[in-house]
Specification:
The chain has 379 residues and is α/β, with parallel strands linked by helices. It has 10 helices and 19 strands. The strands form 4 sheets. Strands 1, 11, 14, 15, 16, 17, 18 and 19 form an 8-stranded mixed sheet that branches. A 7-stranded parallel sheet has the order 3-4-5-6-7-8-9. It has a two-stranded parallel sheet with strand order 2-10.
């Protein structure tokens, strides 16, 4: 990452995103799963990091297949994907078929009603429409049930007007390599797929692709791993961090033993302490669950590599941290503080707040300045 340089005197926080690292992560995952195709999941504004910057980076790296959740997300990246394919994971909402068809993206259909809607749209437009089907193999979220697949196999008329481009499912416990659900879902997906017209298949996302080639099929769909996430418990995913999040010190304060910190006085100083007040809070994406209700806390930041635990409750714009062990020369007003970075990694930050790195990423607020690093073009 670049040296810490503030863009303006009034900036309270910065999110630095390394586009070259994202491209490198995609290439590393593509090499890992070859000969399967490596797609990219860029839903939720590329997990909060900026789809309009990340999609062109991935396309330039060679990615041709993208997955989003909503129609709005699909419309946003459509101009950025010249010849690639965009899959719409939420499928078809009522009365949306014509809009989806006009946009030229591929809906991932999870119900028989959606298939009927898309079939009627194809008949009205008098052309075959590209289609993906989502099979529920055991997650019990979106997807065609085993009974739905059997009924569709018995009445395949919709496929007269639909071009089946992909059959997919999603694993429930892919982050745990020895979870029995993985093999159960693999078997269920394989059996259901066999009842449908022949088409490319996709089962694995970021963690599933680490389970081995049996789970790769024709297309893998990494999302979190592209952005440096390490959720898989069985090994290190071959990706590197892509972002740093920093804020600034607003004030240094001294506490006496017995003083309380923050709303509702949930933290009481057990000794004389130094604390720093930081220009970040839950409005910036710092989870309130990182708050310290007692003297013990998982939530922490880092100052020049020194860990500083969160004290008291995270508030909307501010947090307090214990800097008693940080050398005083690092504690100037306006100094940088690492929220996510080499010391406080994305997954550690998620765990400390009793959540996951996925949520940390997607909650990062637009209030912090975003800086994109790319060879020859840092903006």
């Amino acid at each position: 990452m670049a040296d810490s340089l503030w863009l303006g005197a009034g900036e309270t926080g910065r999110i630095t995103i390394d586009l070259d690292a994202i491209a490198s992560n995609w290439q590393s995952l593509a090499d890992t799963v070859s000969p399967a195709l490596c797609a990219a999941v860029v839903k939720a504004d590329a997990y909060g990091l900026g789809a309009t910057r990340i999609v062109p980076t991935l396309a330039h790296a060679g990615c041709t297949t993208f997955f989003v959740a909503t129609l709005k997300e699909a419309a946003e990246i459509k101009p950025l994907v010249d010849e690639g394919q965009i899959y719409l994971l939420d499928g078809l909402l009522p009365d949306s078929a014509s809009t989806v068809a006009d946009l030229g993206v591929i809906p991932v259909l999870s119900t028989l009603d959606e298939i009927d809607d898309w079939h009627r749209q194809a008949e009205q437009s008098n052309k075959k429409l590209q289609t993906a089907l989502h099979i529920d193999s055991g997650l019990n979220r979106l997807g065609l049930s085993a009974g739905d697949v059997a009924r569709l196999a018995q009445n395949p008329a919709p496929f007269d007007t639909l071009k089946l481009d992909l059959v997919m499912s999603h694993l429930a416990s892919a982050d745990v390599p020895d979870a029995p659900e993985n093999q159960t879902q693999l078997t269920a997906f394989t059996l259901a797929r066999a009842l449908l017209p022949d088409a490319p298949a996709s089962l694995a996302a970021s963690d599933g692709l680490m389970l081995g080639s049996a789970f790769h099929f024709d297309v893998v769909r990494p999302g979190y791993a592209l952005y440096g996430g390490q959720a898989f418990q069985g090994a290190t995913t071959p990706v590197k961090p892509v972002l740093e999040v920093t804020t600034r010190i607003l004030q240094i304060r001294s506490l006496s033993r017995g003083d309380t910190v923050g709303y509702s006085a949930t933290y009481t100083a057990p000794r004389d302490m130094r604390i720093a007040i930081l220009a970040a809070g839950y409005a910036d994406g710092i989870p309130r669950t990182a708050s310290a209700a007692t003297g013990e806390t998982g939530g922490a930041v880092a100052i020049a590599g020194h860990v500083a635990p969160v004290l008291g409750r995270v508030s909307m714009d501010l947090i307090a941290v214990d800097v008693s062990q940080v050398p005083p020369h690092h504690l100037a007003r306006g100094a940088d503080v690492e929220i996510i970075g080499p010391t406080c990694t994305l997954d550690l930050v998620g765990k400390a707040a009793d959540t996951i790195g996925y949520e940390i990423l997607t909650r990062l607020s637009p209030r912090f300045e975003r800086v994109y690093l790319q060879k020859g073009a840092n903006t």
